[in-house]
Amino acid sequence: MIRVALVDDQAMFRAGIAMVIDSQPDLTVVAQAGDGADAEAMVREHRPDVVLMDVRMPRVDGVAATRRLVDAFGDECPKVLVLTTFDLDESAAGAIEAGASGFVLKDTRPELLLETIRAVADGSQVMAAGATRRLFETFRSRSVRSTGPEYDALTPREREILVRAAQGMSNGEIAAAEFLSEATVKTHVSRILTKLQLRDRVQLVVYAYEHDLV
Predict the structure, then answer these.
(1) pLDDT at position 129, please?
(2) CATH topology of domain 2-131
(3) pTM of the predicted protein model
(4) Angle made by CA atoms 176, 177, 180, in degrees to the nearest 5
């Protein structure tokens, strides 16, 4: 069972999303909050696996709330999936930099939202439904950084897999391209994240764009 929490200042929107999520046998809404200021206490009490976080809220927005969650819970932080109205939103980009695992458009079809929640909970999806490559291009356009010793520690195979993952390929697609098993690819991705000190695959994509590897 995937435990989901909702943070959005629109009560009717939260109610609708909660109905969609609770209709699924493997998903359940365990908590709701109307502002990012309440997100940390909510997570501490209910321990969700995924937090659906509105990016624009009147008091504490989704960017600040995401940053607070990552700072407070570290490696134990639930996956944060940002809800936004526009597919190219600087606030959504800021939330990803703060530690969110992706974003999804508010007008996404219900079935795609559910698939995205499952994928983000599993850690297997690079970009949530509705995300575009243009979003990640914003990271490269800001400033290209030189790679450091953390990148030098990667093996040649790990560097190849890093680039393929950053291009949006799934573990299965990488396995087929590299003639490896999915389990082996998953192990490589885990090692890459550890060596680069990254939280998840979305942060891996950001790293690749910031360092002009894609």
Answers:
(1) 46
(2) Rossmann fold (3.40.50)
(3) 0.75
(4) 55
